[in-house]
Here is the input.
Amino acid sequence: MTRIKGGPKTRRKHKKIIKAMKGQWGTRHRLHKRAQEALLHSFRYAYEHRRERKGDMRRLWITRINAAARINGLPYSKFMNGLKNADVQIDRKILADVAVKDPEAFAKIAETAKTGLEV
Here is the structure.
């Protein structure tokens, strides 16, 4: 049997990687080996940062809730404690959204938190 070399298949694989690295600087979008290294790094960074983004969003929500709670006379920790005592189960994402889009409704929630602190 004759030997079959993998030229076309290898070229397709290389072109796929080079195409994925379009927009990169220097050899990262020209040379297969450098492009492969850069692609692996970029996949790893993307994976890590998808997880980091969740913490970033939570910090943003807490900052927004704290600002709105202080406008209504409570620091964040007492606000959240008051909600817990009042048995109000609204997550931080929704609270932050209400704080930004509907301050009157957030003021009512803050009153509920204040009554939860008194109990």
